[in-house]
Known about the structure:
Blueprint: H1 3-29, E1 48-53, E2 59-67, E3 70-77, E4 83-85, E5 93-98, E6 104-112, E7 115-122, E8 129-135, E9 149-151, E10 157-162, E11 171-176, E12 182-187
Antiparallel strand pairs: 1-2, 2-3, 3-4, 5-6, 6-7, 7-8, 9-10, 10-11, 11-12
Amino acid sequence: SWRMPVWIAAGALASLLVGLFVVNTRGALKTDKARDPPFPLTSFPQSESYPSFAPDGKSFSFSWNSVPGNVDIFIKSLQSSEVKRLTTDPRMDYQSAWSPDGRHVAFVRNLAREIGELMLIPADGGLQRSLGVFQGLSGTNLKVPPPHIGWTPDSKYLIVSGQDEGDGPLRLHRVDVKNGMRVPILEAETP
Length: 191
C-alpha cells in the first residue's frame, strides 16, 4: 500500500529532526566559564542602528547619528575602541551590509520619503558609487521592514527589495555591483 512509504518517510524525518535537535543543544546545555561576559558593542550618544558584521567577525558597520539630524555609516573594531566614519553625506545613510568577501559595504542613502539610493563603498573607505535609485527602499517605508538589501555569496550581486517607479508592486531585484544593472527576480503579491 502507498501508506507504508509515507510512514517510513515520516519516521525518518522525525528521527532526523530529533538528531539535529540533540546535536544543536548539546553544546548549549553546557556552561563554558571561559567565555567572556556580554558587553555593549557601542555606547555612543544619540541613536545607533542597522548593525552588520564583517565576514571575518573582527568589526561591524552600523548607522549612527553622531551629528544630530544626520545619520552616517561607521565601522567599529571589536578588538579595539577604534571607530571609522565611512560616509559624510548630509542625507541619511543606513542599512549597511558587508559583502561576503569583506571588500565592500552596501548601504541605502535616503533621498526623499520612500526613495532610497543603493550605494557601495570600499570597506576601508574611499569613493562611494551609486547602484541606482529605488522607490520603497527608504527607511520611512512601512511596507517592508528593513533590511532591504543582501549580498549573493559570490559578492557579485545585491538583492534589493523596492519599486521600480511610483506605486508599483514591491519587487526583488538583483543588482550587479560592477555596473548597477538591475533585473527584477520576484514580484510581491498585491491584495
